[in-house]
Batch of 2 targets.
Target 1
Amino acid sequence: MSSLPILYSFRRCPYAMRARMAIWASGTAVSLREVVLRNKPAALINASPKATVPVLVLSNGTVIEESLAIIDWALEQNDPNSWADASPETAALINACDEGFKGWLDKYKYADRHPEQSAVYYREQAEGFIADLEQRLSVQRWLGGEQGTRADVAVFPFVRQFAGVDPTWWLDAPYPAVRTWLNDWLASDTFTGVMAKYSPWQPDAPDVIFAKSSGR
Ligand SMILES: N[C@@H](CCC(=O)N[C@@H](CS)C(=O)NCC(=O)O)C(=O)O
């Protein structure tokens, strides 16, 4: 039995993705447990009754059950890219993503479940956030300036989803700087590294070591 921290994750979940990216970039090894959301393992529910992913269980029993807190934990272990950034601006950007953009994104993605308005309407609401990113990225390389921060990592998986709802529209959408930023992330070792596929975890399965240094 390894004493590595245990990460409950779901490959396509944007919250889990941002957490895995920070863990990956930090070079910290964790034991990854891929979760099927409709059949959550009892071990996850016991550790974290709210049972969202990602959840990180440290070897001393501490449970970290919010993706942003997992990012912070990872960057405390090691932050080779200097992503840690406690500035109010970075926090505000992440908050605008999680508390505003994400809601419109879900409605845009699943517009058929929200027939009160059209998909285009929902997309236009979500575009307020994308336009803000465009403004920033048209004058600087990363969202917070010339250096990437936890905001870039935290926001990226949601922008990826937004672009993926209607890829044809996205190709010509008036957000060239966001497109470049997104494409850079998609091509990055950090993103491809964290998107490896794992079978759903079973209690008797051997540990799956998730770490940048494991040679992937
Ligand atoms: N605020 C949480 C949100 C995590 C979250 O909502 N994850 C989704 C998957 S993307 C989830 O686990 N949903 C529970 C479910 O589908 O049962 C975080 O940042 O970690």
Target 2
Amino acid sequence: MQQYLDIFQQLASPYFRQDRPVSEPINAEQLKTIVDFSLGSKGTDLAALKQAASHYLNYQPDSAQVDFFKLLYSGRNNPALLGDWVTSLSNANMHTYQMSPVATLMEQELITQWNRLVGFTTDTQTGDGVMVSGGSQANLIAMMMARQKACPELKTKGFSNQTLVAYVSDQAHYSAQKAASVLGIGTDNLIAVASDNQGRLCPTALKDAIEHSVKQGHKPFYIGLTAGTTVLGAFDPVPECAAIADLYDLWVHIDGAWGAPILFSQQYKHLLEGCELADSFAWDAHKLMNVPITAAVILTRHQGMLEQTCGGGGGDYLFHSDENSAHNLGQKSIQCGRRADALKVWLSWKAIGHNGFSDKVDQLQVIKQGCVEAIESSPTLHMIGPAPYLNVLFQFRPSTHLSEDQLRVLNIAICKAMQVQGGAFVDYAKYQGKTGIRLILANSDTQASDINRLLSHCIKTGESLVNAS
Ligand SMILES: Cc1ncc(COP(=O)(O)O)c(C=O)c1O
């Protein structure tokens, strides 16, 4: 075993250096000529394994660097990393307390804390929850609970002729479509409700859409709101939508995969005002909380609903009754074997407390504001959507007039050129017909100087691409 520990240490040490390039783009054909991907009948020696692991790290974009702005996570959370290593070492399994005693109690404590922040746990009620592989699975289980509430017989009898209809905003994450497809709702019965000019679901459009479904003889059952949309970081208006849900007795879910940590911040939690009115809530710890993938949770204010929806089976061979069986989490999950993601989240929360996460949100909001102001004062950079959270969507526009299509091509080219030049790793996204550069601010080590460097690089790259064309 010592040999493996030594190799790990040799590989990991250079990986922690801050001066590594954020990414070394390489196409698949080239990569196949460098790394031996073949698997054969004979085994190989440790040196070859070390070489493969080294290649793996070399060509892996480094989301811990301050120049990584591409996805809804970045930076490194050392306590969580320690937790991830120990989790692999333990190979704990979260279906039963017996197979994960400490992790089970840690997960229960996390669920208590998350439910308090959301407001599902109060003096008079106790929320419930279970950790899941990510926001997509959380959104799936939310829709599944809504389906269970609307049609309890469906779990055993399957679908009748009834058409169930779900509503999300036109800015919602694509996992809503996957959920509608997996659960047999049908993606045609997932209505993309119009959003307003701030990217928030429009309540009047929601009510109209529900009325339309009712008139068609369909059965509305689920409203999926988003806290922190993927492109803009918009927060849908919860109280207005919850009031509409009450009129039709619909389940309200909030997808807080990205935006939920705003609840740590006294200064900004108003963006999620009324979230305690929802029935369920998704929260990714592997996004803004910087915990290594995967770590997420589905919360609900309805005790027993997770077991009712996800539970069943396994009693003869897995879920034995003993003095700890009340702590078995397996019946709340759609998985059987489940990794102990709780440890890494618990360690990072223990290390910095609520205040550490709150400081992070507040600091990043300051950086975001500085970034927006720098863009707004630049003659060639233009915001193409509001930035209520930690997403900044902007376009480079040269002084010569270009069509929207040409701007799209140019801005995509800027993203790619910067990556190849070893600069910042950013992504592009489309909002209301305009394609721009999307920055995600998720790394609390990011300084205003990193942002200024990035924006200058965008301008220089844009200008040289225009000059070369
Ligand atoms: C708003 C939102 N919801 C859900 C997801 C899916 O989360 P996961 O990748 O954890 O499944 C994302 C991913 O970016 C997201 O932005």
